[in-house]
């Protein structure tokens, strides 16, 4: 799809052969995290085949901050893609950081079936899991039908 010249996009131009975790690492440096000093980057590949990135954006009114995953999901939905195929999250932590509880619910909204989540540290450790495994017993639309 061609975008008009003045349309902004939250997709980042990929570098040759860049992995999803490399995309997450590249956006992580842009995080606004002056309060926690904990920068997080997230990259999502959509089922439609595009990659969207997000970083955490904190606020002096602490609860108003947003997670990296929420940013990447918002970018995907704003661009018109609808389903998550794969997720990568990276932080400068001693062990790979799993998405927080709220982000697990947000990811599950757009993840159907086997959706891999790679969690990595800037030091080179990584672990893989699945969105469904991160949110057992999840609340779904089926719970609202009588
Ligand atoms: N954070 C994320 O962006 N994603 C996660 O999965 C875990 C936590 C952010 C929120 C906050 O800005 C900082 O990390 C410390 O909790």
Automatic annotation (TrEMBL):
> Which residues bind substrate per the record?
56-62
Species of the source:
Gymnodinialimonas phycosphaerae
Supply the Pfam families for this chain. dCMP_cyt_deam_1
- Indicate whether Lipid metabolism appears among the record's keywords: no
Q: Describe the location of the CMP/dCMP-type deaminase domain by residue ranges.
A: 15-132
Gene Ontology cellular component terms for the protein in this record: cytosol
Question: Tell me, what is an example of a GO biological process annotation in this record?
Answer: nucleobase-containing small molecule metabolic process
**What cofactor does this one take?**
Zn(2+)
Catalyses:
cytidine + H2O + H(+) = uridine + NH4(+); 2'-deoxycytidine + H2O + H(+) = 2'-deoxyuridine + NH4(+)
Reported function: This enzyme scavenges exogenous and endogenous cytidine and 2'-deoxycytidine for UMP synthesis.
Entry keywords, A to Z: Hydrolase, Metal-binding, Zinc
Q: Which family does it belong to?
A: Belongs to the cytidine and deoxycytidylate deaminase family.
GO terms for molecular function, please?
A: cytidine deaminase activity; identical protein binding; zinc ion binding
Enzyme Commission no: 3.5.4.5
Q: Which SUPFAM superfamilies does the record associate with it? A: Cytidine deaminase-like
The cross-references to InterPro entries, in alphabetical order and at most eight, read: APOBEC/CMP_deaminase_Zn-bd, CMP_dCMP_dom, Cyt/Deoxycyt_deaminase, Cyt_deam_tetra, Cytidine_deaminase-like
Q: What is this protein called?
A: Cytidine deaminase
Active site (catalytic residues): 69
In this chain, Zn(2+) is annotated as bound at: 67, 100, 103
* Lineage: superkingdom: Bacteria
